[in-house]
Amino acid sequence: TQELLIKSDKLSAVGQLAAGVAHEIRNPLTALKGFLKLLGARSDKEKTYIEIMDKELGRIEFIVNEFLLVSKPQATHFVERTVGGIVQSTVELLQPQALMNKIEIVTDLDPTLPTVSCDEHQIKQVFINVMKNALEAMAHGGTLRIEACHLPQDKQLKVRFVDQGCGISSERLPKLGEPFYSTKEKGTGLGLMVCYRIIEAHGGFMDIQSKLGEGTTVEISLPITSTAVA
Ligand code: ADP
Ligand code: MG
């Protein structure tokens, strides 16, 4: 356990450093955006360039803000949220990585889903970890399906991440969530451990089904706080 503690200490030091870097990026970024607004376009071509630069700077700003949101250690703070909204913003965050890997992300989110009481940043961190694993498992492209549904009589709603990746053998399946269990060269094996911990703290549970060579389905159940309003 001593070794484990040292390792998680190191991780949080790296996380703090990364959050610090993201924070430092924000100030020069604001200056860049400001001065760009002062630039007068002398031609239509220049106008287009300035628009593209402004849009791309906005994108950097969005990513930096999202990054700060998930990397900062925060006290648990429960609020009423729709899971669909959290899924959407997570998808937006990971879309570039998906495109790069020729992966299509398809969402099927019931718009009448009841709300859940959750720590939005933590749930987002779970969705990011699970989605990143799915993208990393689909080295040759494919489809990542994200479904969220709720049966009227249930006290839980379900969010399902279905990938067409490499899959996990039945021998390795029980090992998931163990700290530092990773099959990736640059993996940490901490992602799923954190996910299990967060979902448990929310009174929910996470179930992983997989078939080697076919794909993996991660199902997350979260207790609902209200009944659906049509
Ligand atoms: P890491 O991603 O750093 O390896 P994780 O805790 O996120 O750590 O995942 C642990 C291991 O579980 C991964 O190394 C991989 O072998 C396996 N795994 C998790 N999700 C998937 C998935 N969607 N498809 C295939 N394997 C997966
Ligand atoms: Mg991972």
Automatic annotation (TrEMBL):
GO terms for biological process: regulation of DNA-templated transcription. It comes from Paenibacillus whitsoniae. Keywords: ATP-binding, Kinase, Membrane, Nucleotide-binding, Phosphoprotein, Transferase, Transmembrane, Transmembrane helix, Two-component regulatory system. This is histidine kinase. Residues 20-226 form the Histidine kinase domain. The chain holds residues 330 to 559 of 559 of the full protein. GO terms for molecular function: ATP binding; phosphorelay sensor kinase activity.
